[in-house]
Automatic annotation (TrEMBL):
It comes from the Bacteria. This is histidine kinase. SUPFAM superfamilies: ATPase domain of HSP90 chaperone/DNA topoisomerase II/histidine kinase. SMART domains: HATPase_c. The keyword Hydrolase does not apply. PANTHER family: C4-DICARBOXYLATE TRANSPORT SENSOR PROTEIN DCTB, SENSOR HISTIDINE KINASE. Residues 189-393 form the Histidine kinase domain. One of its GO terms (biological process) is phosphorelay signal transduction system. InterPro entries: HATPase_C_sf, HATPase_dom, His_kinase_dom, Sig_transdc_His_kin-like_C. It catalyses: ATP + protein L-histidine = ADP + protein N-phospho-L-histidine.
Length: 393
């Protein structure tokens, strides 16, 4: 059975792929524009250099005025520095000087020299033949517009990514809140529905218990256990959605009690064993009824995986001074690596019948209510699985 969440993950993957395609297309198109604009600016600088070259040999003052007004002055965006053959600065154009050096010639010269070094990194200088066999150099770099356009798609992608990230977290929070409301509503309604028949059963149990006809009947004791179990189940559902009280409990004893109840109600071909690596009086902070529910869900899943035949070993391990681990190992079919991340998702199940809520509910109880952890510690197909519960002390 494929859970709804897997389908949603596929939708997310498709959305991410589409976003990547759009991003790649944006960068490609912008790079084409940048390339064309760069070529245009290069042509503009070359025209500027030709204008200078022409001014040297201009036959009349009218032509010089035309070159000055129509060609040399047409460049209003591309930063340009004109030097002699020794790179002494002769003129500059479209260079934004810092305000603190505007009236200091020495500082201006140092600043322009640094600009020349930057220009060399971007473009080769254009050589302009000058009088008496000497040459001048025209250094230039990308205009501010071209520089901004070059980095624009990356800035755009960062902004879009930040927006998408915020939207994703908002959606995830909204979805979790919705899930919480569903869990709580379902649990409260279940507790309400169980309440009426349970009250009736308790009344009948007390009536039968007081009857001399059933005195010393073994079945009466088992019936009492089941009635009390129903009370516990109702209490469990009532605790979902509210903050359960956690108390320091003898974790070995609590675990043993949960197993003792289960052992009489599942296949006798399943052998249980409990081991502890610490002293029997060690405690952990748990809500007993909810913790029992977790043990029950994990063990019932293990029994199903073993098809009612095998062994379940429970080992309690001390993890430093602040936490305790409860490892539940079965000899079942094991979980493929590709499915380990999905076992705790609501709706995930390998059984023909079932809602796939047991492990999801168990993880919710441990992670959210006990502030611990529940995860698959080990699993191998054909050999078995180990679930680890981490509880705070």
């Amino acid at each position: 059975m494929i859970p709804i969440y897997s389908q949603k993950n596929r939708i997310k993957l498709v959305v991410v792929i589409i976003a990547l395609i759009i991003g790649a297309a944006t960068i490609t198109y912008t790079n084409i524009l940048v390339s064309k604009l760069s070529e245009r600016e290069q042509e503009l600088v070359q025209l500027y250099a030709k204008g200078l070259r022409y001014m040297i040999n201009a036959p009349s003052d009218d032509n010089i005025v035309f070159i000055e007004e129509e060609i040399l002055s047409s460049n209003t965006t591309v930063p340009v520095i004109l030097t002699d053959e020794n790179e002494n600065i002769l003129d500059s154009k479209n260079i934004n000087l810092p305000e603190n050096i505007a009236d200091k010639p020495d500082k201006i010269n140092e600043y322009l020299q640094r600009e020349i070094e930057k220009m060399k990194e971007q473009h080769e200088p254009i050589v302009v033949p000058w009088a008496e066999g000497s040459v001048n150099y025209v250094f230039y770099k990308d205009s501010e517009l071209l520089s901004q356009l070059r980095y624009y798609p990356y800035v755009q992608l960062i902004v879009i990514s930040c927006f998408a990230l915020v939207a994703y977290f908002a959606f995830s929070y909204s979805r979790r809140a919705e899930q919480n409301r569903v869990w709580v509503g379902l649990a409260k309604e279940t507790a309400h529905q169980l309440g009426t028949p349970l009250s009736s059963l308790m009344a009948w149990y007390e009536y039968i218990k007081s009857s001399p006809k059933f005195e010393n009947e073994p079945i009466l004791e088992e019936l009492g256990k089941d009635v009390r179990r129903l009370e516990i189940i109702t209490e469990r559902f009532s605790n979902i959605g509210s903050v359960p009280s956690l108390r320091d409990e003898n974790i070995l004893q609590v675990t043993q009690n949960a197993i003792n109840y289960l052992q009489n109600r599942i296949s006798r071909k399943v052998a249980f064993s409990i081991e502890s690596t610490f002293s029997p009086d060690i405690t952990a902070k748990v809500n007993v009824s909810l913790y029992d529910w977790v043990i029950e869900n994990i063990c019932k899943n293990a029994v199903d995986a073993m098809e009612g035949r095998g062994s379940i070993n429970i080992q309690l391990v001390l993890l430093g001074k602040s936490s305790i681990a409860v490892d539940i190992t079965d000899t079942g079919k094991g979980i493929p690596k590709s499915k380990i991340d999905s076992v705790f998702l609501p709706g995930f199940t390998t059984k023909k019948r079932g809602w796939g809520l047991g492990l999801a509910l168990a993880k919710r109880i441990i992670d959210n209510y006990h502030e611990g952890r529940l995860y698959v510690k080990w699993s191998e197909v054909g050999k078995g699985t180990t679930f680890r519960i981490v509880l705070n002390r």
